[in-house]
């Protein structure tokens, strides 16, 4: 099989150590397989984004030697494809006027049979999940199964404010670019059944998944661009990469002479089965604020 992987940061700020670990894992997995590694900027939600983040992220990746293949993909340039997908999912979608506050964690289907909203009344588009369970055999976490009706419920693919939902866009992108392997943080594991539901509705097979532990600070909070984490310092690329390799349970190749050689060795020895099979890992002090 030809391998296509990707790294898909949201441009809410420059890369922090947690996102670097995810980037490195997906890069090494792709290079180990002799596959392609795409870079996609998930810029679907302008109010949450920072205008100069994409350029910063690109510069950081290059300074660390993580060179992607093909042109950088921007979700903001793909909005028509998401609308086309909503169109093709139409037999399974319905408008929802519920307020966010009024819905339970698993949506109960209130609007499934309701009248169409009045003209001008804002509505979200939900997709009706099939009555079945879905599973992945994660390359690190093993088998995970969800019942779509009871664990997930009908979910939003286009928001009331007109923005497309991540759950839809990610599937449409991965299909469009023929992504075969997804390597990402396990904070996204709970999103996976929603994405599987869309694959199911589109009648196509999902890619393979490898969810890696999420990096946390000393109090157990996920590193995020908003808090806890400083931007990755790229001035000593090799030591940053060695630290991430150690967190991923990989050999740190102390004898590598430069970053290029380090990444080459790390790619050839990459072994996802030695990634710690835990929910999260505490980031080294140097990478915290
Ligand atoms: N943009 C998403 C995030 O940064 C990742 C999407 C994905 O890898 O599926 O959380
Ligand atoms: Zn509703």
Short recap of the structure:
By secondary structure, the chain is an alpha/beta fold.
Q: Percent of residues in helical segments?
A: 25-40%
Domain module tally: 2
Annotated CATH homologous superfamily of the largest domain: HUPs
> What is the distance, rounded to the nearest whole angstrom, between the alpha carbons of the first and last residues?
42 Å
Structural class: alpha/beta
What spatial form do the alpha-carbon principal axes imply?
Answer: globular
What name does the CATH topology of the largest domain carry? Rossmann fold
Radius of gyration: 20 Å
Supply database-style keywords.
289 residues, alpha/beta, Rossmann fold, 2 domains, three-stranded antiparallel beta sheet, binds glutamic acid, binds zinc ion
